C-alpha cells in the first residue's frame, strides 16, 4: 500500500470518529453550530472517501484507452469535493436562519466546547500529514482533503469560541450567527478548491513559476539551437506535460540534436518532478552564415535575428 492510500485511509478514520462525537454533542446540546460542524465533517468524510478511491485510480499506469494515464481522476475528485462543500455550506446557512428566527437555548456548553477543541487538534494533525504527502506526491485529491480538514480546524475553533461566548453572555442567538460565519468560510474554501481542481480538466497551462523553470532550462543551451516555439504545457493529476518545437542549424546531425533534447529534458525533469516532455526537431529553413558554418561540435549561432 503506497503512502497516498495510507494517508487517505487515515483521513477516513479520523473524520468518522469526529462526526459521531459532534452529532452526539450537537443533539444533546441543541447547538446548530455544533450540528453544522458535524455536517461539515460529514462532507469531509465524503471527500476523504472520494480522495481514497481517486488516488487509487490515478496511480494506474497508462493503457490503450487512457494513453495519458489516469491522473485526471484526482481533478474530478477535487471538483466533486468542492461541490459537496457548497451544498453543506448552503444547508448550514438555511438551518441557521431558521434558528435565528426561532431561537432555542444551548445546553451542555462545556461538553461542546471540549469536543470542538479536540476536533480542531485532531484535524490539525491529520491535515498536516495530508499536506505533507500531497506535496510529496503532487496530489490534488489529497491537497483538497487536507484543505477540508484545515478549514475544519478554524471552524471548530470558531464554534468553540462561540460556545464560550454564549456561556459568558447568555446570548443564545450567537450560536446560529457563528454557524453562518462558519458556512461563509466554507464557501470561500469551496471556491478556491473548485478553481484549483477544475483548471487542469480544461488543460490550463502550468503556473508562471513552472513555465519560467522550463524556459530557463531551454535557454541554457541557446548557443546550440537556433530557436524554439510552440511551447505548450498542461497537467493531468500529478503529471505535467510539456511539448515544444526546437529549431536546429540545417547541417547539424540528428544524433547531436537528439542528444541536446535529452539534456534539456533531463534538466527540466530534475527540477520539475513527474514531467513528461516531447520535443519536435525542426531544421532551420533560413539561409544564414551561422548555420552554414556550424561544424557539429560547437555552435557559433549567437545572433538569432537572421532566423
UniProtKB/TrEMBL annotation:
GO terms for cellular component: plasma membrane. One of its GO terms (molecular function) is cadmium ion transmembrane transporter activity. It comes from the Bacteria. Residues 10-202 form the Cation efflux protein transmembrane domain. The chain crosses the membrane at residues 12-32, 38-55, 76-94, 106-126, 147-167, 173-191. It is found in: Membrane. Residues 207-284 form the Cation efflux protein cytoplasmic domain. Keywords: Membrane, Transmembrane, Transmembrane helix, Transport. GO terms for biological process: intracellular zinc ion homeostasis. InterPro entries: Cation_efflux, Cation_efflux_CTD, Cation_efflux_CTD_sf, Cation_efflux_TM, Cation_efflux_TMD_sf, CDF_Transporter. It is a multi-pass membrane protein. Belongs to the cation diffusion facilitator (CDF) transporter (TC 2.A.4) family. This is Cation transporter.
Amino acid at each position: 500500500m503506497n503512502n497516498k492510500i495510507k494517508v487517505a485511509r487515515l483521513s477516513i478514520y479520523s473524520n468518522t470518529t469526529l462526526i459521531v462525537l459532534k452529532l452526539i454533542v450537537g443533539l444533546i446540546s441543541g447547538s446548530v453550530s455544533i450540528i453544522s460542524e458535524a455536517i461539515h465533517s460529514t462532507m469531509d468524510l465524503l471527500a476523504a472517501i472520494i480522495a481514497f478511491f481517486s488516488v487509487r485510480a490515478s496511480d494506474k499506469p497508462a493503457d490503450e484507452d487512457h494513453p495519458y494515464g489516469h491522473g485526471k481522476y484526482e481533478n474530478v475528485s477535487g471538483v466533486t469535493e468542492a461541490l459537496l462543500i457548497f451544498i453543506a455550506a448552503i444547508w448550514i446557512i438555511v438551518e441557521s436562519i431558521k434558528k435565528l428566527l426561532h431561537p432555542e437555548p444551548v445546553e451542555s456548553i462545556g461538553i461542546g466546547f471540549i469536543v470542538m477543541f479536540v476536533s480542531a487538534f485532531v484535524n490539525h494533525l491529520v491535515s498536516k500529514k495530508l499536506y505533507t504527502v500531497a506535496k510529496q506526491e503532487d496530489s490534488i485529491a489529497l491537497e483538497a482533503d487536507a484543505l477540508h480538514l484545515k478549514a475544519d480546524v478554524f471552524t471548530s475553533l470558531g464554534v468553540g469560541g462561540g460556545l464560550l461566548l454564549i456561556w459568558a453572555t447568555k446570548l443564545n442567538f450567537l450560536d446560529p450567527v457563528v454557524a453562518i460565519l462558519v458556512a461563509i468560510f466554507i464557501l470561500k474554501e469551496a471556491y478556491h478548491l473548485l478553481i484549483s481542481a477544475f483548471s487542469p480538466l480544461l488543460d490550463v497551462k502550468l503556473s508562471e513559476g513552472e513555465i519560467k523553470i522550463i524556459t530557463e532550462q531551454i535557454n541554457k543551451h541557446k548557443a546550440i539551437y537556433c530557436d524554439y516555439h510552440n511551447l505548450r504545457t498542461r497537467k493531468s493529476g500529478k503529471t505535467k506535460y510539456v511539448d515544444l518545437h526546437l529549431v536546429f542549424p540545417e547541417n547539424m546531425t540528428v544524433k547531436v540534436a537528439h542528444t541536446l533534447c535529452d539534456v534539456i529534458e533531463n534538466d527540466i525533469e530534475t527540477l520539475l518532478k513527474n514531467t513528461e516532455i516531447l520535443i519536435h526537431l525542426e531544421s532551420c529553413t533560413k539561409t544564414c552564415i551561422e548555420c552554414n558554418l556550424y561544424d557539429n561540435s560547437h555552435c557559433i549561432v549567437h545572433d538569432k535575428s537572421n532566423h
